[in-house]
Write a structure and sequence with these properties.
- The structure is a single chain.
- By secondary structure, this protein is of the alpha+beta class.
- It has 2 domains: about 180 residues, Ribosomal Protein S5, domain 2; about 130 residues, GHMP kinase, C-terminal domain (Alpha-Beta Plaits, 2-Layer Sandwich), CATH 3.30.70.
- The protein is about 35% helix and about 25% strand.
- It is built from 11 helices and 11 strands.
- Strands 1, 2, 3, 4, 5, 6 and 11 form a 7-stranded mixed β-sheet that branches. The protein has a 4-stranded antiparallel β-sheet with strand order 8-9-7-10.
- Helix 2 packs antiparallel against helix 3 and helix 2 packs across helix 4.
- About 45% of the residues are buried.
């Protein structure tokens, strides 16, 4: 085991992009940092920084600790007592891949400490098995846009470079929506018509993204598998998905399981303020308070920094000062 300290910066992600349910994901320029080292005193310490961390375990039931131990086990190493710190500007349970970023951060950090014994493909498989679907973890692990498949044992993916000149506006309601609750809103069966509709639109969307056909994305990002059923959980969502293109958006989607709503727009558009106002005003009219953030697709996966002994006492917040949006 490497005795140094590693800090991993992981991008957020948006999943589905409309019709690509559990198969499409895109990394976004919002980040979480996982700081990990072997505990010099032989006692595990877990520090969770930032807002929204209340209720998250700070003992060995913590997600980051458990995922790290999985890496050590896969690498043939014994369980390790760890010093872990995490700061995330990704809001929890809002549909922006907060759990996926923690999983990926833990996997990368632990694998670094273990001497990079596991391949990226192995880490992707472990992340997908833990998360249950490959879209968010794939986007955070590889950056860009991910087209992925998971059959319960094998995870495959193709990475696409996001079309240039694309900005992302997210409207984040100030209430949490668990993935479990959002999945319970979905039916057990779908009609052949809706199934074919989604297959065709998802296929068209992948082709449009791969070839930079922004003119097709508006039509391709329509969905009949999850968004219509989750709309009842998010007041104002249906109107935003239907009308945002009239206010400058290229296309819109529910981000992951929600409640965050996402709009794509050309970077040089003169209608950004109009689009932002439309999203926030629509939600406000439904009594939903929300925050909005302008983001871009993140082109890279995790960034790794090593801290040698002389800088070991620098806190995580000191290390990332100047980078955080919050």
């Amino acid at each position: 085991m490497d005795k140094r300290r590693v800090i991993v910066k992981v991008p957020a992600s948006t999943a589905n992009l409309g019709p690509g349910f559990d198969t499409l994901g895109m990394a976004l320029s919002l980040y979480a940092w996982v700081d990990m080292s072997v505990a010099v005193d032989g006692i595990t310490h877990i520090e969770l920084l930032g807002s929204g961390m209340d209720g998250i375990p700070r003992d060995k039931s913590n997600l980051i600790y458990k995922v790290a131990q999985l890496v050590f086990k896969e690498a043939g190493l014994p369980e390790q007592e760890l010093h872990i710190a995490m700061y995330s500007e990704i809001p929890l349970t809002r549909g922006l891949g907060s759990s996926a970023s923690a999983i990926v951060g833990a996997l990368i950090a632990a694998n670094e400490l273990a001497g990079r014994q596991l391949s990226m493909q192995k880490l992707f498989t472990l992340a997908t098995r833990w998360e249950g679907h490959p879209d968010n973890v794939g986007a955070s692990l590889f950056g860009g846009i991910i087209v992925a498949a998971w059959d319960g044992e094998r995870a495959d993916h193709v990475r696409l470079e996001p079309p240039p000149g694309l900005d992302v506006l997210v409207a984040i309601p100030q209430f949490q929506l668990s993935t479990e609750k959002a999945r319970h809103a979905l039916p057990d069966q779908y009609s052949r018509q809706d199934t074919v509709y989604n297959i065709s639109h998802s296929s068209l969307l992948v082709a449009a993204l791969a070839t930079g056909r922004l003119d097709l994305i508006r039509h391709a990002m329509k969905d009949r598998v999850h968004e219509p059923y989750r709309a009842a959980l998010i007041p104002g969502m249906s109107k935003i998905l239907k009308e945002a293109v009239e206010h400058g958006a290229i296309a819109t989607a529910l981000s992951g399981a929600g409640p965050t709503l996402l709009a794509l727009i050309e970077s040089d558009s003169s209608r950004k303020d109009e689009l932002q106002g439309f999203l926030l005003n629509t939600l406000e009219q439904e009594g939903v308070a929300a925050d909005s953030i302008w983001l871009t697709p993140c082109l890279s996966g995790p960034e790794v920094d090593w801290l040698e002994q002389p800088t070991e006492r620098v806190s995580l917040m000191e290390w990332i000062k100047g980078e955080v949006k919050a």
